[in-house]
Design goal:
The protein is of the alpha/beta class and 302 residues long. The protein is built from eleven helices and 14 strands. It folds into three domains: 29 residues; 148 residues, D-Maltodextrin-Binding Protein, domain 2; 98 residues, D-Maltodextrin-Binding Protein, domain 2, CATH 3.40.190.
């Protein structure tokens, strides 16, 4: 009798342990982000990001959906089908050539790099520049866009800015962690930060005087100004600085994924796809290096 009781007790313990194990597994499967984080941490250690993307059959890309010409919604509805722009379509074409699906996670620029590290996304594409400091923590693809920085100022007086040094004491609208905000602060401007706001919020504040300037990419600034003709804003007529290269950013050590993305980009450059997409969204071939005098900024740990 005693032996039978012990047997039954052991069976009950086994059932309880099994049930707990099944519950934990179910909770893990119920959260794609948690599962992805665990997989990504393991993949980052082993350098197997590409294998993980292949197994999932999907490349998850972080982007903002708020950058005119680069990543934005074509229409009033904010859904994946309406999401477009140069960066978005470049990533769609890369995924197509890699033989996987693509999905986009919409987030502010300040959250993209942490999202790569946490594994929430595989890569980010949002007019993100290659910089030495970022290269210490992340890998980049080959550039797919070349540009430089400029300023949006009030048209009537250029916001009192005639040189980079004139930024001292001005208010510059920008994201907290962007290179453009670093440049503004480097020259003594006060940075007014925003969340994942659209171009209109930034540019309206220059128009109404809440801020004085927005430092940003030339192409994005050009289309931003063109989209709001009623605002008293313009591209600065003289200042061109900080030559830039835009690329896909991904986890450090993602050699397999980086190699395949670079192969796709090289093929797109050779067959004219990059030029075609750049001219479609920017009305200029932003996939080619810029010519002319562009001021290099020294003393910045970008």
């Amino acid at each position: 009798m005693k032996k039978s009781f012990i047997t039954i007790l052991l069976l009950l313990i086994f059932v309880l342990v099994s049930a707990c194990g099944e519950q934990n597994t179910s909770e893990g499967n119920g959260s794609n982000t948690e599962e992805k984080n665990e997989n990504t941490e393991e993949a980052t250690t082993k350098g197997e990001e590409w294998e993980r993307v292949q197994d999932a059959g999907e490349l998850v890309v972080g982007t903002s959906g708020t950058l005119i010409a680069a990543s934005y919604y074509d229409g009033e509805e904010e859904n994946t089908d309406a999401l477009t722009g140069y960066d978005v379509e470049v990533m769609r074409e890369i995924a197509n050539r890699l033989g996987v699906d693509v999905s986009f996670e919409i987030m502010g620029i300040d959250g993209m790099l942490p999202a790569i590290k946490s594994g929430r996304i595989d890569v980010a594409a949002n007019d993100i520049e290659i910089t030495p400091k970022r290269e210490e923590e992340f890998d980049f693809s080959e550039p797919y866009k070349y540009s430089y920085s400029t300023m949006v100022v009030r048209e009537k007086d250029n916001s009192g800015i005639n040189s980079l040094e004139d930024l001292a004491g001005k208010k510059a609208g920008g994201g907290a962690t962007t290179i453009y905000s670093q440049i503004a602060e480097h020259y003594g401007a006060e940075v007014v930060t925003y969340g994942n706001a659209g171009n209109e919020a930034y540019l309206r504040d220059v128009d109404n005087g809440r801020t004085d300037v927005v430092i940003n990419d030339y192409y994005l600034s050009k289309f931003g100004v063109g989209a709001f003709p009623d605002f008293d804003i313009t591209l600065h007529p003289e200042l061109k600085f900080n030559p830039t290269e835009t690329a896909v950013i991904m986890p450090k050590g993602a050699d397999g994924l980086s190699e395949r993305i670079n192969d796709a980009l090289e093929a797109m450059r050779e067959d004219g796809t990059l030029t075609e997409l750049a001219e479609k969204f920017y009305k200029e071939d932003a996939s080619q290096k810029q010519e002319g005098d562009i001021v290099e900024i020294e003393g910045l740990d970008l």
